[in-house]
Every structure is written in C-alpha cells, then in structure tokens.
Amino acid sequence: MPIHAPGYRPRYRKIFKKGGKRRLMAELSLTAMVDMFTVLTIFLLQNYNITGAIIEIPSEVVLPPATQIKELKPSHVVVVTPKSVIFNNKKIANMDEIRGQEKWLIPKLYDTVKVAIEKKKIELEKKGYFDNIKEEVEDAKNAPISRQRNIYKKVTVEADKNIDFLTIKKVMYTVTEAGGAEINFAVVRVAPEE
C-alpha cells in the first residue's frame, strides 16, 4: 500500500477524474446513513414514554389540582360535567336529575356500568388473560395479583372541580354498586409548595 502525504482527499475521487466534469449521479454512502438511522431509532425508542391511558377531557370540565399522583391505567371513564354525567363517551343522565333525586343510586349509570364491566370481563376471558394469573392467596405479597385479576373493574372519574361533593358521592356509590373495584380520579398535576 503506497504512503501518501496527509491532506484533503475527496471521498469519491472517481467523480472528479473524467476530464474535470462531474457525473450527474453521485454515490451515497449507505453505511453512514444506516448508522445514523439506527442511532436515531434507538434514541427515540428509549425516550418514548407511554402511560397506556389516553383520556379526553371535555372543554367544560376543569380538573382539580393535586400534588400526589400516579399514572392512570386504561379503564372505564365516568365524566361528571356541570350539565351531565357521561360514561365511556355516552351521555347517561342530566345533572338536574341526579341532584333532584333522593336516592344515592343513579339507575341509568348503574345499568350502563354493570354491562360495561361484564363485557370487559368476557373480553379478557376470551383472550385468556386470567389463565396466566395465579390463584389469589390471602397474603400481602400477592396484592399485585389481586389488582391484575380486577383490571376489568377499574373506573376513572373525571369530575369538574366545582361539582358538589354529594353528586360525586352518588356517582362513586353507583359505580361501586355496579361492580367497580378501583376508582381513580383524573387530576391536573401541580408542583408541591415548599
């Protein structure tokens, strides 16, 4: 191999050798491009963050602030707006009806939640979700197994911060009576005051 003096050498010397004219087709180095795309793909995959829950908040709902939060998991969603109660994007009852009734149970919401929970359970059974979960044991270390078994009973409540507590209590009572096991509230995260 001949020894050359250091200095600039064009990468594609063949392009410039034909009588000083450049060819119309330039050669691309695919190795460098593949390396670049590999690094970019790995970077994006490592920085991609998904919680699994995508919730849509109606414009008329102002969520309450909170400093202590945990990530929401996919679940059924009950939205309590100043005008109505919505379950999984379906309007269930008007707020005037709920406030006017003496009973704690909201019949339309109860029926809808019960049917949705049963549908979710059947869907998970068909997929074989419960086959992989061990039988529950009355032991503290098996608490995560218990949560996995009740994943179809999770409900997220998106309530406007100006709704009175009695109305929220009626909604929570109805969801619990219909079979909801874990009720989470959607909130807006705020920095803790120091």
Overall description:
The chain has 194 residues and is α/β, with parallel strands linked by helices. 36% of the residues lie in helices and 14% in strands. It is built from six helices and seven strands, in the order ααββββαααβαββ. Strand 5, helix 6 (165-177) and strand 6 (182-185) form a beta-alpha-beta unit. The longest helix has 20 residues, at 107-126. It starts with 12 loop residues before the first helix and ends in a 5-residue tail after the last strand.
List keywords for this structure.
194 residues; 6 helices; alpha/beta; five-stranded mixed sheet
This entry's quaternary arrangement is single chain
State the separation between the terminal residues, measured CA to CA. 69 Å
Could you say which structural class the secondary elements and strand pairing correspond to?
alpha/beta
Strand content is 5-15%
Sketch the major β-sheet. 5 strands, mixed
- Approximate helicity band: 25-40%
Instruction: Give the neighbour order of strands across the main sheet.
Output: 4-3-2-5-6
Sum up the overall morphology in one term.
elongated
* Low-pLDDT residue spans: 136-140
Number of helices: 6
SSE order, as H and E? HHEEEEHHHEHEE
